[in-house]
Amino acid sequence: MTETATAPPRAVTPDVMRPGGLAAFTAVYAGQLARARFARGPLLFVASLQSLGILLLLRGVVHHDPARTTSAIVAGSTVLVVAFVALNLLAQRFGALKASRALDYYGALPVGAGPVVLGTAASYATFTIPGALLTCIVGVAMYGLSFSQVWIVVPVVVVAGIAMSGLGAAIGLLAPRAELATVAGQLAMTAVLFLGVIPPSHLPVVARTVREIVPSMPAVDVLADALRGSLSWWAVGWRLAVTLAWGLVGLAIAARAFRRACAR
Amino acid sequence: MSESGVVSAAVLDVRGVVKTYRGATTPANDSIDLEVNAGEVFGLLGPNGAGKSTLVRQLAGLTRPDRGSITLFGRDIGGDAGAAASYVAYLAQDEPALDELPVGLAVETTARLRGLARAQARTATTQLLDELDLGAVASRPLRKLSGGQRRLACVAAALAADRPMLLLDEPTTGLDPVARRSVWAAIDRRRAERGTTVVLVTHNVIEAETVLDRVAILDRGRVIACDTPGRLKARVSDDVRLDLVWRRTPPTRDPTVDALRPRADVDGLRWSIRLDAAAAREALGRLMTGSTLEALDDFTLATATLEDVYLALGGRDDDLERE
Looking at the partner chain, which of A10, A30, A104 has a beta carbon nearest the beta carbon of B62? Predict the structure, then answer.
């Protein structure tokens, strides 16, 4: 008598779909942009208002100072808008996402940490553009600076946006608690405010040293030079490259922290 | 991108899974063994803290087991957290990441992040919103919706882009009966048309009895029973539940009341007693004819439920839902 062994029933593994890196980035970016439009409008208004307020306040104090001082004030105030949103608000956002286990949503989707961090950071950086441009143009007009090279504000805001959002994302994802992410984000923004708005020549030596390592400062200096009409292309390239490098380091650290937070 | 291969008909195979959270003295999951077949609606039933959500999080690749293996469609996902995401759609108890997104965009973004192109994702979103009757709130952010609508929107996001397995952690919590029915209809449709496998967490026994093909009952991190609801209930089929509601403090010195008292699960003036059917009939007969009748406000006699199975098998918490 022969016995035929019955093979266990077999089924085909289903096809799976995963978005490519760019598609995932685009989806996260579009979603976050819409979210910010619905939920963050008032805060974006405050970000611009804060910088415009600083311009107005300092106008009464320094309007007779040379262009070196006034251009630094306008450039610092412009980049402050970027820091408020892309650094401070993004640090808070990632801190809150981590604390509320909201990262699970992304952890359960077939997307890498990179597109999620980049998409979110890019959306916050994008939202800084109108406020930063407005601040810069109002500042140039208010302080009687040169409009001839004001276009440089566009690459400056983009690069500073990358740097600030990288730093903000890293702070938010590395902070052990949401409250600490908020505090760290606000402290970092305060540093950008003081070290950016006050011209380097007016700072004490220690603060000047610290200023050298704040990622957004090379971008502030590029914009300040442009507003005085004294751009050096070599300096523009070098300084924006340094700022960009800071941003990429921050984003890489944030992506790693994101992966660790998802894989608990 | 797509991948193909061949696996056994059991699409999910969980072997000896142990998970203890840092700082905890007892494991959240303790030697869990389970097998879920293709196209099955499989339930995890148990009280709060039984380890259901921990298990589902491991199935979704969000938490790594300390020991044991989890094989999904032939792939070991215990050591590869990202692998599960290709096959499963996971619905958590709450989705704070979607809170501030409009409903339509939440579903569309989820569909795109599962690999649909933008146009396909838009079409799928429109269909899903129609299916779950969410069209009227498509442009409203989730956090501005009622609890039930919000949950329904999260279910819609989970159903986006048709994954072969749905992992749903209490999908119908907070839903009204109409929404609840539309969720089950949507899940059934996917099972019938695409062979979707569903693993869901519930602590609602009625839901478990009506929608599940098989159910694993969890208690304190362990599977204490796993079978069809019908076969599980057959294990305690001789038992019925006698529920008594008293108008005032139950009378003392009545032999029937005194005999029931030590066996009763007491909640104020409500007593719930599990008895074999003959004993329950006899006790009820005596209560209806004796002087205790005037102290009795209401009573019900019901056949065994999965809750009775849970308790009969040694379950120690009694917070399963009966609604």
Answer: A104
> Residues with Cβ < 8 Å from B79, sequence gap 6 or more?
B64
Alpha-carbon distance B70 to B16, whole Å? Answer: 9
* Local structure of residue A9 (DSSP, 8 states): P
Judged by DSSP in three states, B118 sits in helix
Q: What is the DSSP string of B197-256?
A: EEEEEE-BHHHHHHH-SEEEEEETTEEEEEE-HHHHHHTTTTEEEEEEEESSSPPSS-HH
Residues B58, B60, B62: CA angle, nearest 5 degrees: 65
Nearest to A109 among B1, B38, B114 (CB): B114
Judged by a CB distance cut-off of 8 A, whether residue A263 touches chain B is: yes
Model confidence over A27-64: pLDDT tens digits?
999 988 887 776 666 777 777 888 899 888 888 777 66
Contacts of B112 in chain A (CB under 8 A): 19, 23-24, 26-27
Q: CA–CA separation, B181 vs B192, rounded Å?
A: 16
Task: Spell out the residues 6+ positions from residue A228 whose beta carbon is closer than 8 angstroms to its own.
Answer: A67, A68, A71, A145, A146
Q: Spell out the long-range contacts of A139-143 with Cβ–Cβ below 8 A and sequence spacing 24 or more.
A: A139/A55, A139/A73, A139/A74, A139/A77, A139/A78, A139/A227, A140/A74, A140/A227, A142/A55, A142/A56, A142/A59, A142/A74, A143/A55, A143/A59, A143/A63, A143/A70, A143/A71, A143/A73, A143/A74
Q: What is the token pair recorded at B259?
A: 């005999």
The rounded distance, in Å, linking the Cα atoms of B13 and A261 is 26
Q: B251 phi and psi, to 5 degrees?
A: -65, 145
Tell me the per-residue pLDDT of A71-93, one tens digit each, with 9 for 90 and over. Answer: 999 999 999 999 988 889 999 99
Phi-psi region of B317 (alpha: psi -120 to 50; beta: other; left: phi over 0): beta
Q: What gap in Å lies between CA A74 and CA A156, rounded to an integer?
A: 13
> Quick check: B87 and A16 CB within 8 A?
yes
Q: Which two tokens stand for residue B253?
A: 């010195």
For chain A, the first-to-last Cα distance in angstroms comes to 56
- The pLDDT of residue A3: 42
Chain A, chain B: beta-carbon pairs less than 8 Å apart: 139
DSSP A8: P
Nearest CA in chain B to A104: B62
Facing B73 at nearest CB: one of A14, A18, A31:
A14
ipTM: 0.81
Q: What tokens appear for B307 in the block?
A: 């809750």
DSSP secondary structure letter of residue B96: G
- Would you call B113 and A101 a contact, using CB atoms and an 8 Å cutoff? no
